[in-house]
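Following up on my earlier thread - several people asked me to post the actual chain instead of describing it. Fair enough. Here it is, all 387 residues.
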Amino acid sequence: MAGADSTVLVTGARAPVALHLARLLHGAGRRVILADSPARPIAAASTACAAYHRLPPPRFAGEAYAQSVEALVSAEGIELVIPTCEELFYLGQLWRDRTMPARLFAPDMAMLSRVHDKHAFIRLAQSLGLDVPETILLQSDADLESVHGHSRELVFKPVWSRFARDVLLRPSPDELTVIRPSPAAPWVAQRFIAGEEISAYAVAIEGKLKALAFYRSLYRAGKGAGICFEPVEDPAARRFVETFVAGTAWTGQISFDLMREKDGTVMPLECNPRAVSGLHFFRDARRFADAVLDDGPEVKPDVARLQTVRLAMWIYGLPAALRSGGLGRFRQTMREADELLDWPGDPAPRKAQWRALAEIAGTALRQRISLQAASTRDIEWNGPDQT
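Reply from S.P.:
Thanks for posting it. Predicted structure:
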């Protein structure tokens, strides 16, 4: 897919997973170019980064973004492009609409859109014979009215969303007044599942698993993205992932939010066809690149300790611990967890996170939004109708 001396473009350089992927590929002898729209993303400071290219924000300057990516791919002799965040969907549109000289490590745009859609994904999983929770598509006030009577048994979320943003967990009927579903901005009402949440990160090529890691988030940034991760294993969860990637002939990265019920049944909640934090449980660069780029055998996670970003833990984890009375647990976690930004011979990204945070904070202040919303504002993809 990409030879030992090849040049790979990793996009989404703001994300710790992009930094980690760049380090793995660089460690396996690839030349890694990074790209994103922030001025100073953390991955750009890494010794794994041969060059960083700043791109226009795809959500707000789509055509300029497409032209810049096309020029970058040609100028740097890129053979493979690996997205890590929601810029994936803008790249999917670009590869759909133009003839590009490099490969995009992802399925076609139709499949990407289908699995990112929280209703269409559940229907697809069901068609593959997998257990799924009852999930109802809401596109009108009438659809919403039809579930009012049992709202306490449901979870409501926008079809196109991330970080558990706007999720209503078992709300009262009165709380549903904030929802205004439409064909352009649909929601789903999904049966609430009691159990243990499991996150999955996988890489597959033509439906065959090449890497797979399961983990659970011990701390989160608000209700959404995890910031401290514990590796787990679950045979039923593996069967789910294997069945899904085989049934879709998946090529690329793919991630799932799953729930394990008390009887061991694993149910899917949603799918993200991109990188997530499970990638941090892989550190053997050559084995990872051999599996993912050279069609070698599946690589297993080789990290067993807790992984975290300490800066995020101070910002989000400590306040949560103080509110819940869990300060002792917070201290113990901070002692036991490895800083996932640390890497032998590559200290700069850990220092660079302060500059990256300052840039995100500036956006948050200007736009009067949260830090988390500001971190992805310019790359979010909210379905075919971006209005």
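The two ends are 37 Å apart (CA to CA). That should answer part of your original question.
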